[in-house]
Design a protein that fits this description.
CATH topology: Alpha-D-Glucose-1,6-Bisphosphate, Chain A, domain 4
Shape: elongated
Oligomer: single chain
Helix content: 25-40%
CATH class: Alpha Beta
Radius of gyration: 22 Å
Strand content: 25-35%
Number of strands: 6
Distance between the termini: 67 Å
CATH architecture: 2-Layer Sandwich
Order of helices and strands: HEHHEEEEEH
Length: 187
């Protein structure tokens, strides 16, 4: 009897823990998204030193985009080989917790422009013009204004989801822009 009671207690604790583990994270603050000092738009940018000519780095960027995006021909807006510039219109899905608090429902798509510029020994990425398309383009900078009547706490989640998606893209880009390791088969 004692062992059955102990077994049931452990089982209840495990299932309660799994239930909490499966729930989505909700945020109660805005992420630290970088802003351009001139335009005041949320803008992620960086210059990465990387061995290679501008042509080689441009080709790596194109190869990365073709691998990273499921439909690269729809995402790549401009591929300027002569200028070593690749411009993409990227989208990411944002979700909101449903009323039951257990499942996520789609809250829309957020779009942004990714520009990759290559020069001798380095490349630069710029991510900006982050917006949601509703009746018109709705820039995410408006989501930071808590005094607006349409503002909800779901904006915390949405902005954090966008930040995480962009951070993931940047990390993947940096990895994809590394020179490929040459494997020498010496036998």
């Amino acid at each position: 009897m004692k062992s059955l009671k102990a077994f049931l207690t452990v089982t209840v604790i495990l299932f309660a823990g799994l239930g909490a583990w499966g729930q989505k994270t909700t945020y109660n603050s805005f992420p630290d998204m970088p802003r351009d000092e001139n335009t005041k738009l949320v803008t992620y940018k960086g210059v990465v030193n990387q061995q290679g000519t501008s042509g080689v780095l441009y080709e790596r960027a194109v190869k990365w985009a073709n691998k990273y995006f499921s439909n690269p021909s729809a995402v790549i807006q401009k591929a300027d080989k002569a200028g070593s510039v690749l411009t993409c219109l990227v989208s990411t899905k944002i979700t909101t917790l449903s009323n039951d608090g257990k499942t996520s429902v789609m809250a829309g798509m957020v779009y942004y422009t990714l520009t990759i510029e290559a020069r001798e020994g380095r490349y630069r990425y710029i991510i900006t013009d982050i917006h949601k398309r509703e009746q018109v383009q709705y820039p995410i900078e408006k989501w930071f204004d808590t005094s607006k009547p349409e503002w909800t706490t779901a904006r915390y989640d949405h902005l954090n989801q966008i930040d995480q998606a962009i951070q993931k893209l940047i990390a993947d880009l940096k990895e994809g822009m590394q020179s490929e390791k040459v494997i020498v088969d010496e036998w």
